[in-house]
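Fold it.
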Amino acid sequence: MSTVVSQAPTGASEAGIAPHAESNAVIKPGYHPRLTNEDLAPLKKQTWGQYNIFAFWMSDVHSVGGYITAGSLFALGLSSWQVLVSLLVGIVIVQIFCNLVAKPSQVTGVPYPVVCRAPFGVLGANIPAIIRGLIAVAWYGVQTYLASAAFMVLALHMAPGLAPYAEVTKYGFAGLSALGWVAFMVMWVLQAFVFWHGMDAIRKFIDWAGPAVYVVMAILCGWLVWKAGWSNIDLNLGGIKFQGWDALPVMLSAIALVVSYFSGPMLNFGDFSRYGKSFEAVKKGNFWGLPVNFVFFSLLTVITTAATLPVFGELITDPVHTVGKIDSTTAVVLGALTFMIATIGINIVANFVSPAFDFSNVAPQHISWRTGGMIAAVGSVFLTPWNLYNSPEVIHYTLDVLGSFIGPLFGILIADYYIVRKQRIDVDALYSMSPKGEYWYSGGYNPKAIQALVPAAIVPILCVMVPTLRGAANYAWFIGMALGFIIYAVLNRSNKT
């Protein structure tokens, strides 16, 4: 079947379209119910401009995890300029890959799991959807737990008498203290509240949350620098250990770490780029939100971290701990609320929206976008993320093994869209289970995508699990992505369109 240029439907006047009056979905009569609901169907209107995409990345970058990650790069033993070069190279790679993965969703108006129907088949797309969804569930729980730590700092500062309830040995259940449970569930409900009001509410939240976090971070940084004195601040947090060519392997590891950190939201960035007014607006938003925003955030982070040593007598890499050390109720309240908002922002955009679409894709008629998101939220509680987070070995293997699939999934998706199909997608065929459909394969699964995914995922998993290959673990995403891309392109070399 010949493909057509991928294009989002332009409105209800198009022949054969039966849009829902109160939704932004365009659903044609021929769309199969097993593949369609109002959340997964092509958008009727795409309204996000470059600022909305920029704000999305601000929310994704601003978090306790992002703060610690950026600070950790400056503690690798590199000089400040070497770290900045590594940061810039890594984030530019992320920007390029995000532009690549954004286009198919932006021009068709469909989310990530629906775009995956092209390479994997209309039913096979559930494989990448479920993998990405499970990763998001795990990280959603961990990020909610990190946000709850800021809530606990605030609660204990305001009511010191609650201290006994913060001890697991006295008042604890399933590895978390009574106060910890209250803090976790408060953050859980707040995030669910924002999510439940839909993508427009999420857009409005991230539009103001990102800049607001920057304002408070800048105030915190300025106060610490004022207290410390600029001459007493050393930006080389770990001391310079590597110079010349000896620094190159460490710089490459730092670059790989930056790309790996963003690999999750990068894979399903189509869930957001589908709302972009134009691909040009998405690209501009990515430029301001990634290299410009991330480098500025990293500088702000490292200056703040470095200033904690002369001010508090110890190097503090956790911003929540930094805020807790300040002897000012106003500062503690403002700081704690800031990092709570920051973590809510990244959690919603990176770990709530993704499984919402992913799980909805499994059974569209039974699982709506909201239901899919709540499945992820409830599942995150049963994972007891505090136990995961407090056991680095468990979280390392769990998330690294799941993460080993992200690179191959990305490589296969990009190879299919740019190499095999030459940027052409039959939008209607994405919702068809007709044996004559472009993306229908025996059983609904494309065997070539599976054949590419399995070996491309096994190699990164071996890098993570086998001690002798551990040196390559930092590059697992790149290895998996390259293998997925090459194997899938080779398997499809005879049927390029």
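Confidence is low (pLDDT under 50) at residues 1-21.
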